[in-house]
Design a protein that fits this description.
mainly beta; globular; 8-stranded antiparallel β-sheet; Jelly Rolls; 3% helix
Amino acid sequence: MKKAFFALLMAGATLMAAGQAVLINYGDMNQWETRKIKESKILGGETKYVFEIAPTKTVEGNNPYYPQGGSPWATSNVYAKKMGVVKASNAVFPEKRGNGYCAKLTTMMEHAKALGLFNIDVLVNGSIFLGKMIEPVSDTKNPYSKMEMGIPFTKRPKYLQFDYKVTVPAGSMVYCPGFGSKKTLSGKDYAEVFVLLQRRWENPDGSLHAARVGTGRERFGSTVASWQNGHRLEIKYGDITGQPGYQSYMGLISTKDRAYYARNSKGKLVPVIEEQWDEPNATPTHVLLMASSGCGTAYTGVVGMVLWVDNFAFVY
């Protein structure tokens, strides 16, 4: 099963200059599924369009999304339902680029208004990642617990290669989780792309743990107006804390409040706690890859931040 999934992930291998670059399946961002979700009448009853990186088709109906056509990608776009009330959120869009498409990731406010009941705003960062989003989403607590992050992977690439451009607006960073007041924060937000290689194991109690095998993490804090094609993010192996360019945000994800989630052998979604840096020659079991229009905690960012990405490949 894992071997078959890995074959789908790495389908479409191509040779490029200065090393072998293997395109991640659907990493050219040229195929998108369009979901038509009808929101509840109490919210206005509008039909919302929600996009997924998957074989091109349009589907109607308020149904949870499951990965289609062997696509390893998920997005932060969601179908939410609580107490029978349906809401859709979309911050990742396909955008025309040449003869194909790219992914446009945006930081935006989602509005939900029900006359006499509530009138709330939620800040959403547009993100794409390897894994699955668990739908329907029923609350805004701990959003990482609604994401199954990472897929089986045993290779040791030298770089993650992709195309990108970014717009960084001048606005302030805000925290806006919906219920509760919106807060203006000091500091600066960044768009981000990262790839993490982990060697995971499961303890008898079902908890998941990992050693960090490889790390590549880059943040973008200034506008880059033109496409940067074939950009390469180096993946560094072993303990990188003493290597040039190391930043604190590249460190181990070792606490439950920051951890990404995965399913254990019993099918339960649990946090993956990184316990240590692995040996430089270690073989990973999983890869995590994410691109996002924000890098802070959930519901935090700068409205109007946009990251465009395309053509994700691993270089060996």
